[in-house]
Amino acid sequence: MGFARTCSVALVGVEGVVVEVQADLEPGVAAFTLVGLPDKSLTESRDRVRAAVVNSGGEWPQKKLTVGLSPASVPKAGSGFDLAVACAVLGAAERIDPRVLADIVMIGELGLDGRVRPVRGILPAVLAAADAGYDQVVVPECAAAEASLVPGVSVLGVRSLRQLIAVLTEEPVPEEEPDEQGRPDPLLAGLRMPGTGAATGMHSVGAAQHDHDHDLADVVGQTSARTAVEVAAAGGHHLFLEGPPGAGKTMLAERLPAVLPRLTREESLEVTAVHSVAGLLPPGKPLIDVAPYCAPHHSATMQSLVGGGPGIARPGAVSLAHRGVLFLDEAPEFHSQTLDALRQPLESGHVVIARSAGVVRFPARFLMVLAANPCPCGRFSQRDSLCECPPSAIRRYQSRLSGPLLDRVDLRVEVDPVTRAELTEPGARGESTAIVAERVRQARERTAARLAGTPWRTNSEVPGRELRSRHQAVAGAMDEAERSLERGVLTARGIDRVLRVAWTVADLVGHDRPDATDVALALQLRTGVPRGVPMAIGALT
């Protein structure tokens, strides 16, 4: 009788659980039993592992074989257990010393020829192994760079089971012939999830690409909207842009990611873990260090936006936009229930999805930008009579965005059509992305210094009770906002959000505390009612 054990990791969302893979050989009729709550793809590993061992020059034991995955109560899905199962079987057959396997975590899928294929979720799996105290990890060779992002873990990247056996038995490591140059590597196919490519709108684009392709200076006019974009980036405030087609709403939203600061190391690992699970890591770039940008089509379902799917839930657009921008163009065209599903992650910063297979928690701390036309034809405004939509149609169209959802949006700006003078005037270009991004970076540094020692990073995250007790404005500065509360223009949540925006304006202009001018600008950005203050941040500094 032979027994051996090694370890792998089961992912539930972006959180991992270390699983002990045990193999037991007993005399009897040759059979292979896999227990421990495996899913269909994991159950099929019996055939993959057997073929991989034989084709790697090993001998398959002709005995009664039982492989157990412990703890048995945790659902286990995917093919990432293949490598651990194969080594546990070889350890039980004494081809590999079982003592060598006991403290190693192995993650990878096996091809029938013994090649080790990558799987999604390598980074969160290695993070879970490190948190559990393991310091040796074996992963596919092409995923070794991603696994090496975790500090304090020794990573071994292997291309085949034959190579791993040689390393564990201290034999000469065979050279594996690489694929012909110029041909696609079939091993990389496991890193991408079908249906999440560029054609679906579910991919993320980094700020570096936006900075290269787009510049805020390309936006003509739109002083109020440009200021709102800058304030949104500095404080993490949600933004609603309303205006006719062609006014520049999409241009402004596309340029917002480049204004955001680069991600910190901790934020980069969070974002990379989500994209690794979703199969959306850019090839050759294991660490995402710029703010992601996700712009799903208005026909997106609730599952694609929030997360879900059959079996164990997958991350949706709100999680793919974690620490970045979620842009919902033509927001009224989204299904109303889909939009209202955003209310909980907007407040909590995460999504909890309950399924029969288990409960999954995904991070979802994103900056939401809504863009909408004022009416079905898009030409309705206070200064233009070209709109031919009946009042009832305008009301129905505008009511598609519910009051509770809009109450969670700090900045609401009307984007006016660009005039001929603005479009043709020489030197009409505004400030570039680099100038605005530098102001945003300095404002974020002031915010970080003020919030040091607290769990919050941006002004938009500070709870209302903390704002009213420890982060008050200058005496008398909130009088106009309080009168708006009495008149019903603002809700209790709304007045807290005005104070948050006022703190962001103060950080941008260098004030120690928000004064009446900062609050007035915050009120104007919140309600759209002019307050007699300059709309350009540069004019306030």
Description:
Residues 235-419 form the AAA+ ATPase domain. Belongs to the Mg-chelatase subunits D/I family. ComM subfamily. It holds the Pfam family Mg_chelatase. Residues 172-204 are annotated as: Disordered. The chain is α/β, with parallel strands linked by helices and 541 residues long. It has 3 domains: 3-192, Ribosomal Protein S5, domain 2 (2-Layer Sandwich); 196-429, P-loop containing nucleotide triphosphate hydrolases (Rossmann fold, 3-Layer(aba) Sandwich), CATH 3.40.50; 431-540, no CATH class. The chain has 24 helices and 18 strands. Helix 9 runs parallel beside helix 19.
In short:
With 541 residues, the protein is of the alpha/beta class.
